[in-house]
Every structure is written in structure tokens, then in C-alpha cells.
Amino acid sequence: MSHGVNKVQSRICRKRGSSRLVTMEKDSGMRSEFQSVIGVDTHVLKFGELPPPSQHTALLFLIIPGNPGIIEYYEEFMRTLYHLSNCQTPVWGIAHAGHVSLHNRTSSLTDLVQMPPDEFSLQGQIRHKIAFVRQNVPEHVKIVMIGHSIGCYIGLKMMDSLQDHHVLRCFMLFPTIERMAVSPRGLYATPFLRYFRWMGVLASKFLSYFSPHMQYRLILRFFKNRKAPECALNASMNLFDPCCVNNFTFMALQEMDEVTKLPKELIKRYLSKLSFYYGSSDHWCPKEYFYQMKKRFPHADLRLCEHGYSHAFILDASEEIAYTVWNWLQGDLHKLND
User: Fold this and answer.
1) Of 107, 70, 80, 88, nearest to 205 (Cα)?
2) Which of 59, 174, 209, 321 is most exposed by smallest CB count within 10 Å?
3) For the whole model, what pTM was predicted?
4) Residue with the larger pLDDT of the pair 160 and 215
């Protein structure tokens, strides 16, 4: 446990007082950095770098997270995907704006009861991801987007704005792209988010006074019956920052209000590039949504999980889902190499 606490504390120290910090893990090739995207300090994880334009066809896996959009949760998934490509295809992931703790930031209770800025709204997160791609990914690079949960909705909405880029494929993992508020989980989450989300923010404010060691012990206790990877434990330390909790609960409430009707026209427009993976027991997007999608779009690339993976697969099935995505993509890769 002390190893995990030390790693979290060193990560906190590296963040403090800088708008762009870079750290490397030599063994894995992982690069962790903070860069400014539409004026917001944003956590980016990178496995591998893009080759120069003169080299072979450049491909990039781009991870769009769910909510909370703490990209460190996806570290094991990204690492597995990178190794499956023999470390030849870079895998990058971008956190949602305002979802990762910046320890040079302080907040009062007055700040926490105010609405977060527009950059942290659901529509703001879409603009944030579009800006990141335009800022970091040259037009010659072919992008494989991998969205998870609300990241699928964000990825789908990005497609229209990225026509100057070549999106080869967009994988939708456990996609929350319709009727979120009336899903089995949404029926409980919506009234809580609408009337009581401040309780979560205040609880986080209270717990923020605990030492990192005690906070990490609480996380270990919470995950004691799950084989969560170390990256998930470290990522969960961000939940003790009340600013982050305020931002992602604010975004979650907007999801309940805005993600209602299926964006049929968008799906129809990009159907040949979309691949959907639904959970067999997912309370955010139940099996009924899968069967209805299959009926509406009989030629869509749709799969229903046969292994019982949970909606939050990053906590217990990162490697398995990475293998699924990699094998699923082989048809596109063979076409590129022909």
C-alpha cells in the first residue's frame, strides 16, 4: 500500500505549480503530461509518439473516457492496446476538462456551490476534445477513436467537426448515447444529481482534509472485493478533490437532461465507421437498447457482450476489452496494409 501512496504523492508534487508537466515511465513507454486545451489544464496520457509524415501510414488510437473522465483509469487498457500493436501504434487518452485534480488550485465552499464554467459542460467537453485533436493530431494521421460510456456520445458528436481528419473507426464501448435518464441506473441517478449532488461535493470537501495515506486506505477498502488495477486506485485519488466532484456531477446532470433521443442522423451518416459494444447486464444502456439499435440499423456493426463485463470495465476487464477491440480492428488494418 505504501508504494501506491508514494506514487500518488509524487504525482501530486509533479503537478503543482505548472501548466504543462511531463513525466515518463521508461518500462512502459508511457508519457503523462498536462497541456492547455481551450485554456484548461488537461491531463493527457500517451503511449508512443506519432511518426513524421514521410513515414508509413500513421495510425493513432484516441481514448475518450466516460464520467468521471479521469484518464488514469484507462492506463491499463491503453498499455495493453499499445503492446498488442507491438508498440508500433501510439495510444493517447485525454481527460475531461476539470475532472483531474490540479493541486495549485484551492476552493472555498462558495466556489463549490456555483455552477462550473461552460468549458466543463457536456457541450464544452465536446469542444474540448475537438480542440485537442486539432491542436495535437496532424491531418495525415488516421484516427481510431475509442469512446467509453458518455465518451461514445462525445466521440459521435466530434465526427462532424473532424471531417478534415481521417477517422478510420470509432468504437463505442458500453455506449450511453440515448435515454440516459430513463435507463435503470438513470432513474436513481437523475433525482440525486438534480437535488442532492451538493452532498457529494461536500463529502469530498470533508475528505479532502484527510492525509493522502488515509485517503488511499479508504480507496483500498472500497475496492477490497474487486481486482482493480493500481491505476484505478491512483485515479480514484482525484475523487477527494471537491472541484473535480463538482465538475463531473455537473456534467452528469447535463447528460441526464441532454442525452435523450438517439442521434439517428449522425449514426446513419457515419454508420460504416461505427462499431458498438453493448453490455449484457448494463444498467446505463440495457440490452433492450442493443436490440432496438439492431432493429433500426440492421447493417450496423453491433456486438453484445457474452462475458458479463461491467459497464465500468476499466476496473476489472481492461485487458479483455483491449483484446476485443484489437481483434475487432484487424479487418481495417488489413485494408490499410493492402
Assistant:
1) 107
2) 209
3) 0.91
4) 215
CB 98 within 8 A of CB 124: no
Q: Which one, of 291, 282, 316, lies nearest residue 174 by Cα? A: 282
Start-to-end C-alpha separation, the chain? 49
> What is the side-by-side order of every strand in the sheet holding 40-47?
22-25, 30-37, 40-47, 91-94, 59-64, 142-148, 166-173, 274-278, 301-304
Q: DSSP string spanning 21-64?
A: -EEEETTTTEEEEEEEETTEEEEEEEES-PPPTTSSPPEEEEEE
b/e map 90-123, b = 16+ CB within 10 Å: bbbbbbbbbbbbbeeeeeeeeebeeebeebbbbe
Grid cell at residue 151: 465518451
The H or E element that residue 304 is part of is strand 301-304
Q: Tell me which H or E stretch contains 173.
A: strand 166-173
Please pick, among 96, 183, 282, 318, the residue that the annotation labels catalytic.
Answer: 282
pLDDT at 162 over 50: yes
Catalytic residue among 149, 236, 275, 318: 149
* Predicted local confidence at residue 13, as pLDDT: 41
Known catalytic residue: 56?
Answer: no
Reduced to 3 DSSP states, what percent helix, strand and coil does the chain have, rounded to the nearest 5? 50, 15, 35
Tell me which amino acid residue 174 is: F
> What is the per-residue pLDDT across 66-95, written as a single tens digit (0 to 9) for each?
999 999 999 999 999 999 999 999 999 999
pLDDT at residue 2, rounded to an integer: 45
Q: What span, in angstroms and rounded, lies between the C-alpha atoms of 45 and 171?
A: 19
149 is catalytic: yes
